[in-house]
C-alpha cells in the first residue's frame, strides 16, 4: 500500500496545449498489456533532460542525450517490458530504430524523437514489435491521454503517478502536467525511474535547461528507496510554447512563478515514487540544516536515509535515536562537532527534540518519540549548527515486503 | 544459522603467554549473565589499536585512545549490556572510573587499563556494579580463559568467535589467539564490533602499530553487514613479549611470518562476524581487481556489497547480473569504461564469466550462474581492466530475518 498517494483522477489531469498522448499494446515482453506510449509535441516545443549518472547508462539514455543536442523535440516514445540496458551497440541501434519508426509515422526527423525504455535489463528490444505498435499508439493520440499514459508507463509500481497544476502568468493560465514511474531505484528486471513534466508555457531553451537541473536536484535527486541508481533514470521537462509570451529570465516574476510550479510538481512526482516505494509503510523526510555547504547536508541526509538500521527502525515505529546518531556520525563529515548537533522527530503535528550535546536530550522521554513514530509521515530534523546550508531528502522505511519483493525470482 | 562458522573448541584455543582472562556476572544490564571480562597482560606487554571513524565516538573509545598514548597496557576491561555511547562527559567519567576499579585490583596505573563497552546506546554505565564485579573476574583469571571470554563478550552474536594460530620464528613457537564479536555493524542497542588479537611474540611498538593498521584494513575494515558503522568499533593487537627476541622490522623473515599470521587470524575473526551477520544465509566475497588504485577498487566492492538489491538477490540465489552491473556503474568511479569490465561468479569450485563488453557475456547461460548461486559461499570477481590495484570485501546476504531482527523493538 503506497503511503498517502492519491490515485490519479482522469478529470483532474489537465491537458497541456501542444501535447497529445497515445498508448498501445505492442507485446514488447508480454501480451495483452499497454506497453507502448507515444507523446506527440507541437512544433516549436522545447525539451531539456537530466539522466542517470550510472556508468552503465542504458542505450535509450545515450540516444536521448544525443537527440536533445541535435534537434527540436517533437515526440517521446516510451516502452515498458525491456529496459534496453546492458545491450551494447545493438542496444543503441535498436533505440535509434524505434525513434525512426515514430519519426516516419509522425513525419518528423528521427532526431526529434526521444526514446525511453524501462523493464528487464540485458535483453534486446524487439524493434519490430515496437514499430508495429506505433500506428495504434498514433491513432490513440489525444490531448487528455495522460490518464492512460501514466498507467502504461508503470512496471512494478503499485499505482500510477500523475498530477497537474495551473498557474497564472501575465493574465494567462499556464498548465503543467507530469507523470512519473519507479518503485525501487532499480528492480531485478524492472529498472528505472522516469519523470516527464510538460507545460504549455513558452520557455527559452536556456531557462528550460536550468529549470530541469534545479528541479531534478530538489526532487528526483533528493529521493531514495534503496540507494540503488538505475541505468535508465531520466527526467524530461517540456515546454510546448503554446500559451503566453516567452519566459527567459529566471529572476522575472514570470520566471519565479514558473520555477515554483515546476519544482513543486517535480517534488510531488518524485515523492510519489517514494510513497510507492517497494514495501513502503512510512514516508520519511530527512531535513538537514545548519550545514557549512549543501554537500555535507546531503551526506548527512543520505547517510540517515540509506541506513538499513534506521529504515527498519522506522518500519517498527521505533524512535531509535542511537541508529540516527550513528548514521550522522558516519556520514563522512570529518570535522563534525557532535556536541553541537540537535535532532528532532516530527509527525502528526508534533515535534520533539530527541538529541543534543552528543546524546539524548535531557527533556526527551521515549513515549513522546514513540507517539510520533506511529504516524505514516515522519520528519527527522537535524541541525548541524555550523553554517547556513540546508537540504531535505525523502525516503521510505524498510519492511519485510522489500526483501520479499526483491528476493522473488524474476518473473 | 551462521554460514560455515565452526564453534570454538576449548582445547583448540591456545593460551598466549602473558595473557590471563577472567569473566564475571556484574549485572550491568541484566542479571545472571557473564557480562564482564577482564584481560590481564604481563609487564612489558605492548598494545596498539584502531577505532571507529564514527564522529559519535563512544566514551570507552575516547578513553582507550588516550590511554594507549600515555602508558603501557596491562589490562583490558570489557563489558556487555551497555555501550556507554552517546553519554557525554558523564560517559567519559564512567569509562575512566571502570579503568580505576581494575587498576586498583591489579595494582597498575589507571592509564594501563583499556576499557571496551558494547550494548545499549544512550544509557549510562553502572560503574558501581561493574566495579563490584571486578574481584570475581580477577579471581577467575586464567591463561586458558579464552573460551569463557569469547562467550562473555557476545551480545546479539548467535555464537562465539575465537581462534588460535601458531607459527615458528627462529626456532621458537609463537602463539596467536584472538576473539571478536558483532553481528550487525551496529544494533538498536547492542552496538559494536570488537576484535582482540594477542600474541606472545616480542614486537616493537612501531611494528605493532603498523601491523594493527594493515591487519585492520585487510580484515575488519573490509567487511560489511549493513553498511552501518558503530560508535564503539575497536580492534586491539597485543604482544606480550614473552617469547623470542624482539621483532622490529616488517621486512625481516620474522616480521613477514608474524605479519602473515596476524593478517590471516584478523581476517578469520572479521569474516566470522560476517558469517554470523544478522539474518545471513550466504557468505559473499566481492573481489575487485584491475583498478587504478585501491580506493576505486574499494568503492566498487562496497557498492556491490552494500546494494540491498544485490544482497536480496543473493538471498534468493538469483544470479542477478543487472543488479551487480548497476552497482558497479554507480560506485562513483567517474571515468570507468564499462566496455572493459568483466565479471565472474564463483562458488563450489566453479567459476563462470557472466559479463563483458557492457553486457551479458556471450558464453554465459543463466543455468550456470543459477548453479553457482546455490552455494553458501559465493565470490563475485570483477576486473576493471585499467590498472593493477585489487581488493576484496566480505559481506553476507540480506534476508527476511535481517528485517525481523532489526525491526524488533529493543528488548
TrEMBL record, chains A, B:
Can you tell me which residues form the catalytic site? 192 (nucleophile)
Q: Which UniProt keywords apply?
A: Acyltransferase, Amino-acid biosynthesis, Arginine biosynthesis, Autocatalytic cleavage, Cytoplasm, Multifunctional enzyme, Transferase
Give the location in the cell.
Cytoplasm
> Which top-level enzyme class is recorded in the Swiss-Prot or TrEMBL entry?
transferase
EC numbers? 2.3.1.35, 2.3.1.1
Residues annotated as site: Involved in the stabilization of negative charge on the oxyanion by the formation of the oxyanion hole: 118-119
What are the binding positions for substrate in this chain? 155, 181, 192, 278, 406, 411
Read off the CDD domains from this record. Answer: OAT
Annotated positions for site Cleavage? 191-192
Residues of the signal sequence? none
Q: Which reaction does it catalyse?
A: L-glutamate + acetyl-CoA = N-acetyl-L-glutamate + CoA + H(+); N(2)-acetyl-L-ornithine + L-glutamate = N-acetyl-L-glutamate + L-ornithine
The family classification in the record reads: Belongs to the ArgJ family.
What is the stated purpose of this protein?
Catalyzes two activities which are involved in the cyclic version of arginine biosynthesis: the synthesis of N-acetylglutamate from glutamate and acetyl-CoA as the acetyl donor, and of ornithine by transacetylation between N(2)-acetylornithine and glutamate.
Checking PANTHER family in the record gives: ARGININE BIOSYNTHESIS BIFUNCTIONAL PROTEIN ARGJ (PTHR23100), ARGININE BIOSYNTHESIS BIFUNCTIONAL PROTEIN ARGJ, MITOCHONDRIAL (PTHR23100:SF0)
Q: How does it assemble?
A: Heterotetramer of two alpha and two beta chains.
The name this protein carries in UniProt is: Arginine biosynthesis bifunctional protein ArgJ
What organism does this protein naturally occur in? Viridibacterium curvum
Amino acid at each position: 500500500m503506497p503511503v498517502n498517494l492519491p490515485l490519479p483522477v482522469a478529470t483532474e489531469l489537465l491537458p497541456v496545449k501542444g501535447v497529445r498522448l497515445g498508448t498501445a499494446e505492442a507485446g514488447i515482453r508480454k501480451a495483452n498489456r499497454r506497453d507502448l506510449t507515444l507523446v506527440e509535441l507541437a512544433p516549436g516545443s522545447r525539451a531539456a533532460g537530466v539522466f542517470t549518472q550510472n556508468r552503465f547508462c542504458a542505450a535509450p539514455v545515450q540516444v536521448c542525450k544525443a537527440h536533445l543536442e541535435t534537434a527540436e523535440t517533437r515526440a517521446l516514445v516510451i516502452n515498458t517490458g525491456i529496459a534496453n540496458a546492458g545491450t551494447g551497440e545493438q542496444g543503441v541501434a535498436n533505440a535509434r530504430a524505434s525513434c525512426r519508426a515514430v519519426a516516419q509515422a509522425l513525419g518528423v526527423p528521427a532526431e526529434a524523437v526521444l526514446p525511453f525504455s524501462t523493464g528487464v535489463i540485458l535483453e534486446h528490444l524487439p524493434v519490430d514489435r515496437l514499430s508495429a505498435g506505433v500506428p495504434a499508439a498514433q491513432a490513440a493520440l489525444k490531448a487528455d491521454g495522460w490518464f492512460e499514459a501514466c498507467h502504461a508507463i508503470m512496471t512494478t509500481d503499485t499505482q500510477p503517478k500523475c498530477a497537474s497544476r495551473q498557474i497564472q502568468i501575465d493574465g494567462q493560465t499556464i498548465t503543467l502536467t507530469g507523470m512519473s514511474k519507479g518503485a525501487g531505484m532499480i528492480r531485478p528486471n524492472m529498472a528505472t525511474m522516469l519523470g516527464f513534466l510538460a507545460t504549455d508555457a513558452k520557455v527559452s531553451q536556456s531557462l528550460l535547461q536550468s529549470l530541469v537541473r534545479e528541479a531534478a536536484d530538489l526532487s528526483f535527486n533528493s529521493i531514495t528507496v534503496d540507494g540503488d541508481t538505475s541505468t535508465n533514470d531520466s527526467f524530461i521537462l517540456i515546454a510546448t510554447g503554446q500559451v503566453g509570451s516567452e519566459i527567459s529570465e529566471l529572476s522575472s516574476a514570470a520566471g519565479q512563478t514558473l520555477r515554483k510550479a515546476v519544482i513543486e510538481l517535480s517534488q510531488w512526482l518524485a515523492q510519489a515514487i517514494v510513497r510507492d516505494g517497494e514495501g513502503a509503510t512510512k514516508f520519511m523526510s530527512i531535513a538537514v540544516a545548519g550545514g557549512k555547504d549543501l554537500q555535507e547536508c546531503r551526506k548527512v541526509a543520505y547517510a540517515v536515509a540509506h541506513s538499513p538500521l534506521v529504515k527498519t527502525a522506522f518500519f517498527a515505529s521505533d524512535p531509535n535515536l542511537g541508529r540516527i546518531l550513528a548514521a550522522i556520525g558516519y556520514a563522512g563529515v570529518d570535522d563534525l562537532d557532535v556536541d553541537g548537533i540537535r535532532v528532532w522527530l516530527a509527525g502528526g503535528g508534533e515535534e520533539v527534540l530527541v538529541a543534543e550535546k552528543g546524546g539524548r536530550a535531557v527533556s526527551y522521554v521515549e513515549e513522546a518519540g514513540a507517539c510520533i513514530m506511529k504516524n505514516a509521515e515522519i520528519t527527522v530534523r537535524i541541525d548541524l549548527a555550523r553554517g547556513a546550508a540546508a537540504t531535505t531528502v525523502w525516503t521510505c522505511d524498510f519492511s519485510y515486503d522489500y526483501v520479499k519483493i526483491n528476493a522473488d525470482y524474476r518473473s
